[in-house]
User: What shape does this take?
Amino acid sequence: SPHATTSPTGEAGATASYSWSESEINVYFTDELGISNQEQSYFSYFLSLLADGLSLWSRTNSKYL
Assistant: This one.
């Protein structure tokens, strides 16, 4: 199920927003000027693909473990 929360990162005026679901993970960092880090979202998309691959591998190879 989707979930979203916002927590301080330690920098003055900066926040990090985390939202995730069963199929995707998106992490957006927004500074005090309201500029989001798109590279971070692309990296999170890559991580979600990697996690999907690992979960698929673990399901298909669980009978051998």
In short: Residues 3-59 form one domain. The chain has one domain: 3-59.
